User: What shape does this take?
Amino acid sequence: MIYIGSDYMGFKLKKQLITYLKTQLHLPVTDLGPKVKTEGDDAIDYSVKVARAVSKAKKNLGILICYSGHAMCITANKIKGVRASIGYNIEGAELMRLHDDANVLCLASHMLTLEHASAIVKKFIETEFILIDRRVRRLKKLEKLENKK
Assistant: This one.
């Protein structure tokens, strides 16, 4: 499942990407808000919803959109089991999946056209993590950090 959320600054791009994911890629998408554009809402509220949904199953992926992508990314990474990164370009989206098994893509609405954002999302979704020793070792270290009290 792909979970998606935004704040008011990413609302338009979110709606456009939902259409793209459903009609062009034929993927199941759950919109975790907002349902209507509300000026001044907080990215953190929607980031937490998406990150928690993603953390429930290994196959889940998330997409978060705000003005810069930073607020969404910082917040998502506070949720155990989430590895969020900002996708400013296609290669970055590919590398976050290949090297770090990222499961949440954060997008900057003010930097991306729909065409560019769609290409980034497509690459993120179609790229699989490649299991090699050093990458698995890094993920285990991250897991240890998350489990420390």
Notes: The chain has a mean pLDDT of 96. The CA atoms of residues 117 and 130 lie 24 Å apart.
